[in-house]
Request: fold
Amino acid sequence: MLLLYSIKSALVLTMLYVPYVLLLRRESFFRFNRMVLLGILLLSLALPLCNASWMSLDRQPVVQAAQVQMLEMGIPVRVLPEVQVVAEARAADNLVVFSLFHLLTFIYISGMVLVLGVRLWQIGRLQRGLKRGVLWHNDEQGVRICCLSGDVAPFSWMRNIVISEKDYEEAGREIVLHEKGHIQCRHSWDVVLLTLVQMVQWWNPLCYMMGISLRDVHEFEADSYVLRQGVSAPAYQLLLIKKAVGSGAYAFANNFNHSLTKKRITMMKRNKSNPWMRSKVLYVIPVVALALSAFATPKFSIQKDVKQAAANVCPLIVLNDSIVEIPEEAKDTLTNRMHEKQLTELLNINIEDVESVAVLQKEAATAMWSDKGSNGAIVIRTRDGRQDEAAAAANDTIYNVVKENAKFPGGDQEMYKFLAENIRYPKLCHSFGVQGRVIVSFVVEKDGSISHIEKRRAPSRTLTQADVVSYKKDNPEAAEQPEEGMDLGDLLYEEAKRVMEQMPRWEPARDEQGNVVRSLVSLPFMFRLQ
Reply:
């Protein structure tokens, strides 16, 4: 997860920093540019953590891909948004798995530790420099000026300024003003934020290029502060040239002797940029929106352990679309979720004739049966209950394209809630790490019932004898045992089909004349292991 976060963070920084280099880097409003750079750093840390599910782009590309596949098979069907069935992946017991991912994670964390170690060493070296060889120190307006006896380039860190005795005697006022400019603008905290981002993205070269841009802006801003204090620009520029031959001893601090002397002098001579040039920063808006959309996960993501709804309620019972009166003595049993066999005995039907049993939440049940379904519903369909309907509809046309699409009662939101409450990741597929996309097509009949459920696509994973022997050895008491030659991809389809068969009746499709018609629909399921 940390490695994935680093990649996302680097993508955000790249998308935001490259336009900055092209549009704003040469403008002369230094404070504004600094705020933009800090904003980029903060967004690169924050956006990967955001999950605006309503902005997800994940669903549409999947739908388009599924539609293309259907069209390639000659079936121009309506494709619903993909269902995400997610389960936690697990490694085999007593088996140490060392993959390329683990190697990359180890390298990445080692890099983070190395960057942190270097920064801590620099801070320690800087603190020692503040104490070693100090001739005198003076506090001015909350800033401590330390004069050192050795040959050290001037620098500042937090509220401390370090300057050599020689520099203080030759150009003490200008140098101290420059370092005070860094301190007043709190540039040291910018460096801390930059260090945090560089720890996360130590492998990203653009991160270090952005550090250079931020240091440039720091120097431009500090130089501007010096000139505003009344220092002569030509004299100050001459001082910069004179001091350019030195090199900074403390890379972590804001250093007076930078190699960007030419840039600094050029910026001091450049005319002020047009204030309207600040509007270029609006590029951030579409980039942030794109990042949020790219990082968002679909709203209807189904987890493995979602509990069924309608627990601890007394639901409505519907048998083949007829509402069954519940005897008073049976209500307590219903409240405690009676077994399927008890339910069929209550209704006086043979359990072998039951084709499907669905438990609906109160929202879906209310949409179909108004107040009667306010506490949820148990919907039972028997084979006999469908035979006459199937015979009558056998010669009806099945439409691929209709004016009004068939829809689940209550809309897609309720359909995905229903799926979330009923679908499960097949245990054998979970154990063998089988995942992939299953596309199921089905017909919504004129009465809204689901029929002709068919597999259009499913992953394939055929078990070998070695697979079966290994599984049975590790799971001797498992209720479901694999067999040689079994295709686990079929189990994913069977699970999708099982849930489809439990669905309540849909609102049927209508043609151009408003007539109820049969329609063909496709629903993709993505079974995925995290």
About this structure: Confidence is low (pLDDT under 50) at residues 58-76, 91-98, 298-312, 387-395. The longest strand covers residues 516-529. The chain has 18 helices and 17 strands.
